[in-house]
Specification:
Chain A: It is a multi-pass membrane protein. Chain A: InterPro entries: MetI-like, MetI-like_sf, Phosphate_PstC, Phosphate_Transport_Permease. The complex is a heterotrimer of chains A (316), B (359) and C (259). Chain A is an all-alpha fold. Chain A is built from eleven helices and no strands. Chain A has one domain: MetI-like fold, CATH 1.10.3720.10. Chain B is mainly alpha-helical. Chain B is flat and about 70 Å long. Chain C has a single domain, classed as Rossmann fold (3-Layer(aba) Sandwich). Chain C is built from eleven helices and ten strands. Chain C has a ten-stranded mixed β-sheet with strand order 5-4-1-2-10-9-3-8-7-6, with helices on both faces. Classes of the chains: A mainly alpha (316), B mainly alpha (359), C alpha/beta (259).
Chain lengths: 316, 359, 259
């Protein structure tokens, strides 16, 4: 309302509440609190099951290099795959969002947006199948070419894998998977760019690209960043596609095209968990905890950016 | 910004009138330039052994450059940049279509081989080579997903009701925030949570269908909350007021006015949430496992589910490898069909259950 | 059963903001009382405080007394839901329930409270209420069609039928004609003249001619400036307000000299 903030319980005003009302309100509120408890439970149970691995002597952890030594290469692999995916997907997603929002013929724009959204609906295990069977062999020539001509860049140091089941392929598969997430959010903010500004730009004689540069991109920038962060979160936690496609080693290398790339946390869990016993289980859960914390941080950052933007636009 | 339109020299050579006509590329010129680009591209790729992909690639690059150069010469820098961006953006969209088309083609191509009656009626019980099917996995997926929905929908819906109709202050803010955070939980972590929860109670070896349902619920609840919240916010306040003014208590107003008005959106949201989790593999891998026979009791031992079935058929084929691969692809095809069907159902719900206006 | 409402020293707050200050008024049964005044003067807020509808907004509260035939509406043990059952309300924009048919809209007050009713009894209530709202002849052949398919004026009469179907004692109307065309407005005004035989009616209106046409008593609300509380400046028989008001401010407003 207008003047000051409302005190939660105004003095002197007692209201009668019916039992039905009280019960319903309580169950609604209880559900909300339950969700908070679940999230706390996720953290608590993971910690309690990870604990044995945290306190175990280093030589008992698989690999014999202690928990940190076990998880560190996996963290490198996880970040490498996710960042690669992000670098490929973001420019593409922004272009797609612009195409659907401002370039595609009006009549088909909605349908095209829907087609892009379908990419998000395909289960990740199917992406894994496709990456393994189609993409990996198709990228083999590129692997050889990169090892020959780009070998001086550490990322492409080689020797080139002869299966194509490399970090590079994984990055591309993940890029396709997070493409719809980033482009959906970007599209939304691009469409919301104030018509007034857009029309003002066009009225000044701007071309379509100049209009987008002046009125759409400045408005949508933080939305794109937030979308990219959410995509990153998804790529960090993606399990099956990586587990199926990647055939790597255990070294913490940045080499994208060799056979020695480290696995990611999530795919390592998926591959080892079904057969794991004893301390292995605790170790894997500890690595899951690390993944949980990483994605939590990324997602909270993304939400913070989104909310900051909401506050900002609310002030106008 | 360039001012060339206003240069007096240009104005002098143009025909006079209120609107100056600028020189423009002929309408079909870009198309012709692209065609030329593709032709040259074909030649180029023929040098290194002809390939369609390379032809298209060279064609797109050369065509774009030609259009840019032509436009720059005839129409000026600004217009040329505009054409360049248009070409880039359109190309990006086309590039994104490639994996989608390739994926759908591959799954159809490889999946149709075993898309037969036996696949839907047989389990893998005592099957070592050819034959067999995913009957047990299909039913397992249905049961576990239904169970997950039965857990998630009441909690998610009630929470969204709290957020829209009752919530205020700190609690509302923190629930909104943490529901957003929960959307980002990796599916494998949700699986580990269910595993940790149940093994703490029942011991390490436990694998149950309901564990998978709990894991999927962790993924599904935030989706349900968010979509239901959006939909409930759309219900006009006037309807709530109309109901209150008739002497209807708040909870009856919510149950009998707000929810029925929003039912189409709620149905759509829940269906999409189901579609989101029905193809999840990782959480089921660590909680439900896989069996070859049919187990329909989610409270008793391992169950088969379609995604996990597909995964193991592909990655751990037996003696007759092709039979396993065929089953894997058919399972993948079936998964895609289920997810697409759910998406279509969601659209139909929002179309047919929307409040009728009578016009 | 029309009832009399007495308001004494009523202050209405939104949180700490005093929206309406010091209202003393007696609203007579079986008559129409009109409330006029410039925008934002608190007349709608006052109207909504009569059936405790303003409490729907968080932080809203009142001081003072509202008594209906001896019953204190703001007593500690009074349930606002009961208050609203005996004091009905019609809103500015017609708001029939979009999921319900015309028939169900009329009977909504009973159905939503799960009141058990025989089919014949329900039919009777629907017909009586629709006749009471002068809508029966127009909709009797399509009672099962959605209420949102009617015209704006018909929808508003449907909302009136819905409000009188629960047999309230008082009917509050918050600018019921402001979203309607002149012909629908006249239809509603005729209806009000009939309804006042059975109900106490309080109407908020921006339209002074409407107040002059339909009401017996008129109250003029005004406020001194932005952020100041609204006050009831004058309350008199309509005839007197429009011909020879006691207050200078009333005369200025009615003759269009400010606002």
């Amino acid at each position: 309302m207008t003047a000051t903030k409302a005190p939660t319980e105004p003095p002197g005003q007692r209201t009668v509440r019916r039992p039905g009302d009280r019960l319903f309100a309580a169950s609604a509120k209880g559900s909300g609190i339950f969700i908070l408890l679940v999230l706390a439970g996720v953290a608590a149970f993971l910690i309690s099951r990870a604990l044995p691995a945290l306190v175990a002597p280093a030589e008992d952890i698989p690999g014999g290099a202690g928990l940190a030594g076990y998880i560190a290469p996996l963290v490198v692999g996880t970040l490498l795959a996710a960042v690669l995916a992000l670098l490929v997907a973001t420019p593409l997603a922004v272009a797609i969002a612009l195409y659907v929002a401002y370039y595609a013929p009006r009549r088909v724009a909605a349908a095209l947006g829907y087609v892009i959204d379908l990419l998000a609906a395909i289960p990740s295990v199917v992406y894994g199948f496709w990456g393994l069977t189609v993409l990996a062999p198709a990228l083999l020539p590129f692997h050889e070419w990169a090892a020959e001509y780009l070998g001086w860049i550490p990322l492409f140091a080689g020797p080139a894998s002869n299966t194509g089941r490399t970090m590079f392929t994984v990055g591309l598969v993940l890029a396709v998977m997070i493409l719809p997430i980033i482009s959906a959010i970007s599209r939304e903010v691009f469409i919301q760019a104030p018509a007034l500004h857009r029309e003002a730009a066009l009225a000044l004689g701007a071309t379509r690209w100049e209009m987008i540069k002046m009125a759409v991109i400045p408005y949508g920038k933080s939305g794109v960043i937030a979308g990219a962060m959410l995509g990153l979160g998804r790529a960090l936690g993606e399990t099956m596609a990586v587990a199926i496609v990647l055939s790597g080693g255990a070294a913490a290398t940045l080499n994208l095209i060799s056979n020695s790339s480290p696995s990611t946390i999530a795919s390592n869990i998926a591959l080892r968990f079904p057969e794991a016993t004893g301390l292995d289980v605790n170790t894997l859960i500890a690595s899951g905890l690390v993944l949980f914390l990483i994605t939590l941080a990324v997602n909270m950052l993304a939400r913070w950016i989104v909310n900051r933007r909401a506050d900002f636009s609310g002030a106008n | 910004m360039s001012l060339e339109t206003q240069s007096p020299v240009r104005a002098a050579e143009e025909p006079s009138g209120p609107i100056r006509h600028r020189r423009k590329l002929p309408r079909l010129a870009p198309l012709a330039l692209y065609a030329a680009g593709v032709a040259v591209g074909a030649l180029l790729s023929a040098l290194t052994g002809f390939s369609l992909a390379l032809t298209v690639f060279y064609g797109a690059v050369l065509g774009t450059l030609a259009v840019y150069a032509g436009s720059r010469a005839v129409e000026g820098r600004r217009k040329a940049t505009d054409r360049l961006v248009t070409a880039l953006v359109t190309t990006a969209f086309a590039v994104a279509m490639v994996p989608l088309v390739s994926l759908v083609y591959t799954v159809l191509d490889k999946g149709l081989a075993r898309f037969d009656g036996q696949f839907f009626t047989n389990s893998m019980f005592r099957v070592v080579g050819e034959g067999g099917g995913a009957y047990h996995a299909i039913l397992g997926t249905l049961i576990i997903t239904a169970l997950a929905a039965a857990i998630s929908v009441p909690i998610g819906l009630l929470t969204s009701i709290y957020l829209v109709e009752y919530g205020s202050g700190r609690l509302k803010k923190s629930i909104t925030f943490f529901v957003d955070v929960m959307t980002g939980i990796p599916s494998i972590v949700a699986g580990l949570f269910a595993f940790a929860l149940f093994t703490l109670i029942f011991g390490n070896g436990i694998r149950l269908g309901v564990m998978g349902a709990v894991a999927l619920s962790v993924l599904m609840i935030p989706v349900v909350v968010r979509s239901c919240e959006e939909v409930l916010k759309l219900v006009p306040n006037e309807l709530r007021e109309a109901s209150y003014a008739l002497g209807v208590p708040k909870w009856r107003t919510v149950v009998k006015v707000v929810l029925p008005t929003a039912i189409a959106g709620l149905g759509t949201g829940v269906t999409l949430a189901v579609a989101r989790v029905v193809g999840e593999t990782a959480p089921l891998l660590v909680t439900v496992g896989l069996i070859t026979g049919t187990n329909l009791n989610p409270f008793d031992g391992r169950m088969a589910t379609l995604p996990v079935f597909a995964y193991y058929q592909l990655t751990q084929p037996g003696v007759d490898a092709q039979a396993f691969l065929d089953r894997a692809w058919t399972a993948a095809l079936l998964l895609i069909i289920i997810v697409m069907a759910l998406n279509i159902v969601a659209r139909l719900i929002s179309r047919f259950f929307a409040p009728k206006t009578g016009h | 059963m029309a009832k009399r409402i007495e308001v004494s020293d009523l202050n209405i707050y939104y949180g700490n903001f005093l929206a309406v200050e010091g209202v003393n008024v007696a609203i007579e049964p079986r008559s129409i009382t009109a409330l006029i005044g410039p925008s934002g003067c608190g007349k709608s807020t006052f109207l909504r405080s009569l059936n405790r509808m303003h409490e729907v907004l968080p932080g809203a509260r009142v001081e003072g007394k509202v008594v209906m035939d001896g019953q204190d509406l703001y007593a500690a043990d009074t349930d606002p839901v009961d208050v609203r059952r005996s004091i009905g309300m019609v809103f500015q924009r017609p708001n029939p329930f979009p999921t319900m048919s015309i028939y169900d809209n009329v009977i909504a007050g009973n159905r939503l409270n799960s009141k058990r009713m025989k089919k014949a009894e329900a039919d009777e209530v629907v017909e009586k209420s629709l006749r009471g709202a002068n809508l029966w002849a127009e909709v009797k052949d399509r009672l099962d069609r959605p209420g949102s398919g009617l015209s704006g004026g018909q929808q508003q009469r449907l909302c009136i039928a819905r409000a009188i179907a629960v047999e309230p004692d008082v009917l509050l109307m918050d600018e019921p004609c402001s979203a309607l065309d002149p012909i629908s407005t006249l239809a509603i005004e005729d209806l009000m003249a009939e309804l006042k035989e059975r109900f106490t009616i309080v109407i908020v209106t921006h339209n002074m001619q409407q107040a002059a046409r339909v009401s017996e008593q008129t109250g003029f609300f005004n406020l001194n400036g932005v952020g100041q509380p609204g006050r009831l400046i004058e309350f008199n028989p309509t005839e007197k307000i429009f011909s020879n008001p006691d207050e200078k401010a009333t005369e200025d407003y009615i003759s269009g000299r400010f606002g």
